[in-house]
Amino acid sequence: MGYFPICCDTIISQKNGTVVMNTFTELIDKMFTLKQRKDRRFKVQDRVFVVFGPLLHKAKPIIDISMSGLSYLDGENQPTRSNGLNILANDFLYFDNKISFIPVWGSETVDLPDNSDRKNRCAVKFKRLSLGQKSKLKNFIRAHTMA
Question: Which fold has domain 42-144?
Answer without folding.
Answer: Thrombin, subunit H (2.40.10)
